[in-house]
Amino acid sequence: MTNTRTSRSGAAAHTVGLDIGGTKILGALLDADGGLVAVTRLPTELGPDGVVRSAARAVHDVVGAAGLGIDVVGGVGLGIPGIVDARAGTVKHAVNLGVAEELPLAELLSETLGGIPVVVENDLNVAAVGAAHQLERDKPGAARHEDLAFLALGTGVASGLVMDGRLRRGVSGAAGEIGHVPIDPSGPECSCGQRGCIETFVSGTALATAWPSRHGRPSPVELFEAADAGDDRAVRVRKQFADAVAAAVRLLALTVDVRHVVLGGGVAQLGRPLLDVVRESLREQAQASPFLASLGLAGRVTLAPPDVPVAAVGAAVLGRRDERPEEPEEFGAAPSDPSAKDPAAAGRTEAGAGRNTALAGTKTKGALTWRS
Ligand SMILES: [Zn+2]
């Protein structure tokens, strides 16, 4: 985390990070040492103008919450759902935000803020960076914290990857899109066109189908309560869910061997009971396999801190770095395929809230907003 930006006054700069969602913007102000100084939360205005306007308001708000002026801010990072071109600073297909066409968000917000540099990143990627940053803050001195997957269990399922301290976006921005890896060929049909994808077992949507809310509370909460009370079917549904999360963890560990897998997203608001059942599944799987046992997967899984807006913090961390992604590549589809113009739109599912249209989105952390 070098290359800390300096503010216009020449002093080492604070940075602001924003986690822009369909209903709210969470903001975080970091000082020059990366310490969290202030947070804010504002409603999101929809549409291109609304997103820029409310983002600018959130920047001023979080700086004001710390009793500071905008002149201390040397950089701003944004995490946003939709198809993000981090290099160009643009976003499109952010359906929950009312943004369809490509929006030069970094440029417009920078103008609104009087020239402060702005970077834009996918919301899951900033969550991964924020989770790595937070682990390091909680247990300082270990570079190994910069090797992590943030596994978002939201409306959909996807992950953000920080490997050896660097964000892994992938050549087409699809790195970590594990929700659509099939784990059961005879499983339920998925919105992506395959069968038995991880997302059909693990997501908030899948849980709400398997165990509909009966008492007005989120279905994951009601499911876990019913299972604790001994309801046979609830026990089975919870076990299937836990096994599928464990499969996602195993998949991440066996492909990129990250040291930490941090569970986040709306379903992770279950907290400790979620962690317990996932670890139990991982231990069961390890019992049958000395190979898996040697990897110690249960010990790698943790929960995102409930009291820290990790995505906003991660966005602020990226606002501190002069780290630009390389040129995106276009490949993978036949020339006659219309999706060839837009590799990010080919075969991926919007995991964001309030949307079930496949094939037009990109990974998002898909937070369920049941406690917001
Ligand atoms: Zn799928």
From TrEMBL:
UniProt cross-references to Gene3D superfamilies, sorted A to Z: 3.30.420.40
Domain of life: Bacteria
Disordered, as annotated region: 319-372
Segments of skewed composition (Low complexity): 333-358
Entries under InterPro entries matching the protein: ATPase_NBD, ROK
Family according to the record: Belongs to the ROK (NagC/XylR) family.
Protein name: ROK family protein
